[in-house]
């Protein structure tokens, strides 16, 4: 008889797997089976980690820096994060305000666990990055999804934010440059949201992991710099994964007021201890070494953005918001879906399934980001691959 002893906890039952990672795994399995798949699903820079960063890791291994470190990270890295952030934003931050974790995803988990009580509400504008809603629910809190429209470049307005607030509202979660839309809020737009956060005493989590990947001469804006005192209610989440093409090294961080940073460090000391020691030394080299590699990668992403936007906009019925940063094109497929409904393709998931099966192109369905009727393409891939992928999408649309 089947035993119930290993039935999963209630909190696991509604937990969805990460749709981005699931799609990437599926594309890899098809490639391993000999199929020529163009994988534009996962958001991961395709460049190698710069050589000087890898050398720093090798040196750390040779020097025996392979033991436990303080749970919140080595002092050099916390200092490097604080100095880099202060230099770029003009906001003075101390190393004690920085907690280094196993990737920015872990940092987000830490913040939600450290701040949210059962039933607290978190305002999450949709489309949102896949893991936000699940991580908030794991912390026992409730994501309140607030729809934004492509006509407004998927930006949350102060009025929509106000309308979503209740006495249980505790936190506003923002991501600019955005995954999945690539949209970048202006300082004025963020400032207007900051005013509501101040008026209604909300905590703000600002996911700034794409902060250095902005195009068309934009300057990246860090949320706490927008109004005096905002740093007392804001947690900035960032890391090296995207900026330095270091996704596998698993280093991210939070910048928060000191008492909250202490709480996060305590949590981490019990849950995971320190992030990998060698990766931390590599991250110090990333932040303190030459920065030309960042500018170079950013220029490449901008060229690819130009290419992808030009090609996608020429496809019938496809609409895009203005992509100002990150490396995603999130496009509206509602018109093609209308035409395909009679062929049994009525949702973004079915559309992505059919595209993968018929044309061997992997994208991620908008439903995973809380925005049915759309799909996400990562353009962190070589231009030939993007060109071939879009050709296949065009022929998929033609056939419908
Ligand atoms: N936030 C956003 C918006 C992301 O796109 C990602 C990428 N996975 C993360 C956080 C997590 O980054 P990391 O790989 O450092 O965990
Ligand atoms: N942020 C990337 C993405 O959205 C990585 C995948 C993930 O961490 O879920 O594709």
Helix content: 40-55%
**In what range is the share of β-strand residues?**
5-15%
The run of helices and strands is: HHEHHEHEHEHEHEEEHHHEHHEEEH
Number of separate domains? 2
Q: Which ligands accompany this protein?
A: 4'-deoxy-4'-aminopyridoxal-5'-phosphate, glutamic acid
Which strand order spans the largest sheet, edge to edge or round the barrel? Answer: 2-8-7-6-5-3-4
Low-confidence stretches: none
Spatial extent as radius of gyration:
21 Å
Euclidean distance between termini CA atoms: 49 Å
Task: Return the average pLDDT rounded to an integer.
Answer: 97
How would you describe this protein?
- The chain is an alpha/beta fold and about 400 residues long.
- It has 2 domains: about 5-50 and about 295-400, Alpha-Beta Complex (Aspartate Aminotransferase, domain 1), CATH 3.90.1150.10; about 65-290, 3-Layer(aba) Sandwich (Aspartate Aminotransferase, domain 2).
- About 40% of the residues lie in helices and about 15% in strands.
- Glutamic acid binds next to α2.
Structure characteristics:
400 residues, alpha/beta, Aspartate Aminotransferase, domain 1, Aspartate Aminotransferase, domain 2, 2 domains, seven-stranded mixed sheet, three-stranded antiparallel sheet, 12 strands, globular, binds 4'-deoxy-4'-aminopyridoxal-5'-phosphate, binds glutamic acid
Task: Set down the secondary structure blueprint.
Elements: H1 10-13, H2 19-32, E1 38-39, H3 51-62, H4 75-89, E2 98-101, H5 104-115, E3 121-126, H6 131-138, E4 142-147, H7 158-164, E5 169-175, H8 187-199, E6 203-207, E7 234-239, E8 252-255, H9 258-271, H10 277-288, H11 292-313, E9 328-332, H12 334-340, H13 348-359, E10 361-362, E11 364-365, E12 374-378, H14 383-398
Parallel strand pairs: 1-10, 3-4, 3-5, 5-6, 6-7
Antiparallel strand pairs: 2-8, 7-8, 9-12, 11-12
Helix pairs in contact: 3-10, 4-10, 5-6, 5-9, 11-14
The structure holds 4'-deoxy-4'-aminopyridoxal-5'-phosphate and glutamic acid (GLU).
């Amino acid at each position: 008889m089947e035993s119930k002893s290993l039935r999963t906890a209630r909190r696991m039952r509604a937990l969805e797997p990460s749709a981005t990672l699931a799609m990437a795994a599926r594309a890899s399995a098809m490639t391993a089976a000999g199929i020529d798949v163009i994988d534009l699903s996962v958001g991961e820079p395709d460049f190698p980690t710069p050589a000087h960063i890898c050398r720093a890791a090798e040196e750390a291994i040779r020097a025996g820096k392979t033991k436990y470190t303080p749970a919140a990270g080595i002092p050099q890295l916390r200092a490097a994060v604080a100095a880099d952030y202060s230099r770029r934003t003009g906001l003075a931050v101390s190393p004690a305000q920085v907690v280094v974790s196993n990737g920015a995803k872990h940092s987000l988990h830490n913040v939600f666990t450290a701040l949210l009580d059962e039933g607290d509400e978190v305002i999450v504008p949709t489309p949102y990055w896949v893991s936000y809603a699940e991580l908030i629910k794991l912390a026992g809190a409730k994501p309140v999804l607030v729809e934004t429209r492509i006509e407004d470049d998927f930006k949350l307005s102060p009025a929509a934010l106000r309308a979503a607030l209740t006495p249980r509202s505790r936190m506003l979660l923002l991501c600019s440059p955005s995954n999945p839309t690539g949209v970048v809020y202006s300082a004025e737009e963020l400032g207007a949201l900051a005013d509501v956060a101040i008026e209604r005493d909300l905590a703000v989590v600002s996911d700034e992991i794409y902060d250095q990947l902005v195009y068309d001469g934009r300057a990246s804006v860090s949320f706490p710099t927008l109004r005096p005192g905002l740093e007392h209610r804001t947690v900035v989440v960032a890391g090296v994964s995207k900026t330095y093409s270091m996704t596998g090294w698993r280093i991210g961080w939070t910048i928060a007021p000191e008492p909250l940073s202490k709480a996060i460090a305590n949590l981490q000391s019990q849950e995971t201890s320190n992030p990998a020691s060698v990766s931390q030394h590599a991250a110090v080299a990333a932040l303190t070494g030459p920065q030309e590699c960042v500018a170079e990668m950013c220029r490449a992403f901008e060229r690819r953005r130009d290419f992808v936007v030009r090609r996608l906009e020429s496809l019938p019925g496809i609409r895009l918001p203005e992509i100002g940063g990150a490396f995603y094109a999130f496009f509206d497929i509602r018109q093609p879906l209308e035409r395909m409904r009679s062929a049994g393709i009525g949702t973004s998931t079915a559309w992505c399934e059919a595209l993968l099966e018929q044309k061997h192109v992997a994208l991620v369905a908008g439903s995973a980001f809380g925005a049915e009727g759309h799909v996400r393409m990562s353009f962190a891939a070589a231009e030939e691959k993007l060109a071939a992928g879009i050709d296949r999408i065009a022929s998929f649309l033609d056939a419908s």
